[in-house]
Amino acid sequence: MEKEKHLGLRIDSETHKKLKEMSEYEGRSINGEILYLIRQAIKKYETENK
């Protein structure tokens, strides 16, 4: 099984604050929220471009 990849991400403090608020509202960690948003974007892209 392949190891999980690590991705460093630099964001400004205002974006971090809003992302933290979103993740808390959704009951996810910030990392979990980022993964959720990325997966949603990928799903949308695949739907529109297949």
Defining key terms:
50 residues, mainly alpha, 2 helices
- Point out poorly predicted stretches: none
Mean pLDDT: 95
How does the overall form come out from the CA principal axes?
A: extended
Structural class: mainly alpha
Instruction: Report the end-to-end length measured between terminal Cα atoms.
Output: 28 Å
Q: In sequence order, what are the helices and strands, one letter per element?
A: HH
3D structure, described in words:
By secondary structure, the chain is an all-alpha fold. The chain is 66% helix and 0% strand. It is built from two helices and no strands. Helix 1 crosses helix 2 (30-48). The radius of gyration is 13 Å and the shape is extended. The termini are far apart. The model has no long low-confidence stretch (mean pLDDT 95).
Furnish the topology, listing elements before pairings:
Elements: H1 13-26, H2 30-48
Helix pairs in contact: 1-2
Brief characterization of the structure:
This protein has 50 residues and is an all-alpha fold. The protein has helices spanning 13-26, 30-48.
